């Protein structure tokens, strides 16, 4: 190749790279504009139904942007922001279009590991065992409690989690009405043992409590936000993730 051809080739490569950077920048601009628009709209919304509709619209539009240019830097940035709002199928699609060799360097390895864990513990599959600690400091495995009742509700929570605390009365009611068929295991992700035990006492939680002191349970189920519940049948099959109490009621009838 003569020098002139080499220069032309280098210029073409540089131009292509610049175009990709421009496309990525434009995509990020669209995403940021979307984020700002939805955030502004949510500030003036009082209706939960309208808020849910806006959030769903945001997810749909942002996901479409991530899928539009998967080779761009913007696609990785958007997925990192959007990951916690996506369902399992969307996460699968999001990762499928990316260069997997770049996952770690783009700061998405933790997200990808959580996604794989979600796949391994999806509804309809066998539960995954893990070990945590009891209030007395002794180790206990989830398998110690699966199969002892028709259904086992595993509740991942923390003392500092407001929605977790607000969900406790509902769990108490389910247990009071269906203690013959339903058991509950609370799995706290608290780093502080003291805060965990105080919350158990303050909230008057009478069901079995474990602390996920080494994050084994959270990693096993790909837990990235709480509260998160997993309903397991007597035979060890995962029936549902985050089932509504009405759904559990129907199963228990």
**Helical stretch tally:** 9
- Name of the CATH architecture of the largest domain: 3-Layer(aba) Sandwich
Care to count the β-strands? 7
Q: What is the approximate shape? A: globular
Largest sheet: 5 strands, mixed
* Average pLDDT rating: 89
By CATH, the topology of the largest domain is Glutaredoxin
Structural class: alpha/beta
Which band does the percent of strand residues land in? 5-15%
Order of helices and strands: HHHHHEEEHEHEHEEH
Share of helical residues = 40-55%
Terminal-residue CA separation: 78 Å
CATH class bucket of the largest domain: Alpha Beta
| Sheet with most strands: strand arrangement | 5-4-3-6-7
In CATH terms, the superfamily of the largest domain is Glutaredoxin
The oligomeric state is: single chain
What is the CA-based Rg, rounded?
23 Å
Explain what you see.
- The protein has 253 residues and is an alpha/beta fold.
- The chain folds into 2 domains: 3-120, no CATH class; 131-252, 3-Layer(aba) Sandwich (Glutaredoxin).
- Helix content is 53%, strand content 13%.
- The protein has 9 helices and 7 strands, in the order H-H-H-H-H-E-E-E-H-E-H-E-H-E-E-H.
- It has helices at residues 3-43, 48-68, 73-82, 88-96, 109-120, 162-178, 193-202, 216-221, 245-252; strands at residues 131-133, 139-141, 151-157, 182-188, 208-211, 228-233, 238-241.
- A 5-stranded mixed β-sheet has the order 5-4-3-6-7. A two-stranded antiparallel sheet has the order 1-2.
- Helix 1 (3-43) packs parallel to helix 3 (73-82), helix 2 (48-68) runs antiparallel to helix 3 (73-82) and helix 4 crosses helix 5.
- The longest helix has 41 residues, at 3-43.
- The radius of gyration is 23 Å and the shape is globular.
- The N and C termini lie far apart (78 Å).
- The model is unreliable at 3-19 (pLDDT under 50).
């Amino acid at each position: 190749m003569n020098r002139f051809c080499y220069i032309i080739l280098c210029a073409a490569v540089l131009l292509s790279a610049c175009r990709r950077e421009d496309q990525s920048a434009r995509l990020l601009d669209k995403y940021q504009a979307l984020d700002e628009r939805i955030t502004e709209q949510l500030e003036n919304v009082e209706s939960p139904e309208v808020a849910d509709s806006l959030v769903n619209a945001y997810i749909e539009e942002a996901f479409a942007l991530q899928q539009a240019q998967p080779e761009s830097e913007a696609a990785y940035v958007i997925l990192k922001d959007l990951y916690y709002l996506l369902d399992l199928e969307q996460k699968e699609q999001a990762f499928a279009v990316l260069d997997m060799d770049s996952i770690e360097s783009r700061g998405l390895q933790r997200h990808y590991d959580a996604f794989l864990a979600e796949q391994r513990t999806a509804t309809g599959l066998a539960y995954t065992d893990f070990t945590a600690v009891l209030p007395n400091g002794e180790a206990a495995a989830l398998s110690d409690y699966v199969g002892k009742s028709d259904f086992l509700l595993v509740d991942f929570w923390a003392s500092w989690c407001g929605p977790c605390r607000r969900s406790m009365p509902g769990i108490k009611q389910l247990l009071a009405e269906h203690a013959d068929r339903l058991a509950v295991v609370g799995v706290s992700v608290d780093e502080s043992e003291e805060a965990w035990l105080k919350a158990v006492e303050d909230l008057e939680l009478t069901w079995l409590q474990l602390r996920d002191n080494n994050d084994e349970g959270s990693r096993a189920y790909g837990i990235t936000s709480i509260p998160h519940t997993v309903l397991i049948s007597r035979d060890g099959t995962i029936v549902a993730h985050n089932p509504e109490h009405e759904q559990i009621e129907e199963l228990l009838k």
